[in-house]
């Protein structure tokens, strides 16, 4: 297995080191080898090469089976023009790899109910929402310009762009609770009306999935009012960016949410949904769980190794059960641990199952 490792900036470096550690533990256990290759992206790449997405990084990614990415960005590069900011590197690599479907699962661990901002009765017996965000179209990639005192961005989508991510979302919904909600702004935006038409047509092939529509403003409210009504949410790039941050807080912290970005083949890009958090970078304070869970998603989606993916997820659950918490999910009577120690605990837990298995 060839894995490209892109730590990026800020806490990206710290959390990715933990994810790599856990991947090594799981590969030892199952006796497969992973060939890790590091690549530069974002501010780290700008500092060395002058651009946020060097060609060498594209090469390394395209010659890998899975890509594990931390986060990009920071105040140091905030004044650069848009096209050479760290974020342009992130958008660029997603585009280069053609990963149009970004899967962002929001799952609440029962022990973390207290960390969630919602009341216990709203959370019920837990939460499990999958946001499928279109990742390489819409406003983030449409024509943008600035002329004098005017500036604009464009939300543009073609039928094939909507089709491919919609099929993925239906397939995912079919394997889950069988409910898909298209979130859009079809009462105002023409691109949203096209989304509805296309999704409606594709629904004919997925009669076993219950399809509903919701305007994005209402969806933002419903996620807080009654998140349990959702199973799979399908939405365009910008709405998905916003709603996935919102959904992460339902699960206790932005530091808990992993993501997988998939295209036509098996090669995928795996990254925590949180950013580079410059305010806590380099202090061993970041929660590595989102990055570690992203590594689990890589094993599942790019390497078809469900067993190893489950092991990592179980190890995370177990460490939380045992009362260990990173700062972002800390609560009274729990044991607070730093980034590094959280990684060690999870890696050890992964290896532990092996001992039980052998006995
Ligand atoms: C995310 C991030 C990125 C995005 C930024 C850093 C460009 O917010 O992955 O959600 O908007 O996609
Ligand atoms: Mg975001």
From TrEMBL:
One of its GO terms (cellular component) is DNA-directed RNA polymerase complex. It is found in: Cytoplasm. NAD(+) binds at residues 74-87, 275-287. It catalyses: (2R,3S)-3-isopropylmalate + NAD(+) = 4-methyl-2-oxopentanoate + CO2 + NADH. Keywords: Amino-acid biosynthesis, Branched-chain amino acid biosynthesis, Cytoplasm, DNA-directed RNA polymerase, Leucine biosynthesis, Magnesium, Manganese, Metal-binding, NAD, Oxidoreductase, Transcription. Its EC number is 1.1.1.85. GO terms for molecular function: 3-isopropylmalate dehydrogenase activity. Gene3D superfamilies: Isopropylmalate Dehydrogenase. The record marks 140, 185 as: Important for catalysis. The keyword Magnesium applies. Mg(2+) binds at residues 217, 241, 245. Binds 1 Mg(2+) or Mn(2+) ion per subunit. Its cofactor is Mg(2+); Mn(2+). Pathway: Amino-acid biosynthesis; L-leucine biosynthesis; L-leucine from 3-methyl-2-oxobutanoate: step 3/4. Belongs to the isocitrate and isopropylmalate dehydrogenases family. LeuB type 1 subfamily. Catalyzes the oxidation of 3-carboxy-2-hydroxy-4-methylpentanoate (3-isopropylmalate) to 3-carboxy-4-methyl-2-oxopentanoate. The product decarboxylates to 4-methyl-2 oxopentanoate. Homodimer. This is 3-isopropylmalate dehydrogenase.
């Amino acid at each position: 297995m060839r894995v490209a490792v892109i730590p990026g900036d800020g806490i990206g470096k710290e959390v990715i080191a933990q994810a790599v550690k856990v991947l090594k533990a799981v590969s030892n256990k199952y006796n497969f080898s992973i060939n890790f290759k590091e690549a530069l992206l974002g501010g780290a790449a700008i500092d060395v090469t002058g651009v946020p997405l060097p060609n060498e990084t594209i090469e390394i990614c395209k010659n890998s089976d899975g890509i594990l990415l931390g986060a990009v960005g920071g105040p140091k590069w905030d004044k650069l023009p848009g096209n050479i900011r760290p974020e342009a590197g992130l958008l660029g690599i997603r585009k280069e790899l053609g990963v149009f479907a970004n899967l962002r699962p929001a799952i609440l661990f029962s022990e973390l109910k207290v960390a969630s901002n919602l009341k216990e009765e709203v959370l019920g017996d837990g939460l499990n929402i999958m946001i499928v965000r279109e990742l390489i179209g819409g406003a983030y990639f449409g024509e943008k310009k600035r002329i004098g005192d005017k500036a604009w961005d464009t939300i543009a989508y073609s039928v094939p762009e909507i089709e491919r991510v919609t099929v993925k979302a239906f397939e995912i919904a079919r394997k889950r609770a069988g409910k898909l909600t298209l979130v859009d702004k079809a009462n105002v935006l023409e691109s949203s009306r096209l989304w509805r038409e296309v999704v409606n047509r594709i629904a004919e092939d997925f009669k076993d999935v219950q399809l509903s529509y919701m305007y994005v403003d209402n969806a933002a409210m419903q996620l807080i009012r009654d998140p349990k009504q959702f199973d799979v949410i399908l939405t365009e790039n910008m709405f998905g960016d916003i709603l996935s941050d919102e959904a992460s807080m339902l699960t206790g912290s932005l530091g808990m949410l992993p993501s997988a970005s998939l295209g036509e083949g098996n090669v995928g890009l795996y990254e925590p949904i949180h950013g580079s958090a410059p305010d806590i970078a380099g202090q061993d304070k970041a929660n590595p769980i989102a990055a570690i869970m992203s590594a689990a998603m890589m094993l599942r989606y790019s390497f078809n190794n469900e067993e190893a993916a489950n092991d990592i997820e179980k190890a995370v659950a177990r460490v939380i059960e045992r009362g260990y918490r990173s700062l972002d999910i800390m609560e009274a009577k729990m044991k607070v641990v730093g980034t590094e120690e959280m990684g060690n605990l999870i890696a050890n837990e992964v290896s532990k199952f092996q001992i039980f298995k052998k006995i």
